[in-house]
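Board notes (copied after class):
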Amino acid sequence: MDFTLAIAGLNNGWLTAASVFIDKYWALCLILMFIPAMLLTKRRLALVMALLLAVAILPLARDYYGAPRPCLTEKTNCVFEPGFPSAHATTAFIFVAASIGTPLFLVFLPLGLFTAFSRVYLGVHSLEQIAGGIALGIILFVVSEVILKKALPLLRKDTGLV
């Protein structure tokens, strides 16, 4: 059974409304996650770096893979451009990774999972595109942390700036 088709075939008023809200107002959702993340996480610089890397890498990855979106439903407008990896899932899981070990994790994990689910529910991404986005988000955050752990001591030592 194709799980993407099965999930996209579901129809629930509340799920549709919440999913369409996330689809249409994703920038607002990012701002609403960014503010508490900057206040309550210790890994703020890695979060910002991972988000910037995502902005740079997502268009390149989408162009490279060229995987079309499934566009399975009429619940929202589906753009006919490559959908792998999902930018919504990538950015949501950057926040999830950044929040590990903080009280925000209890908010960001369900929000990230719902965001990923909503993309399939709306029919604008396949499960593979969502999984790729989740993996990319976590990888970008971990890579950012590793780079910063190695670079910051060097900057402190060599320049005294940080």
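Comment from the instructor: The radius of gyration is 17 Å. The mean pLDDT is 92.
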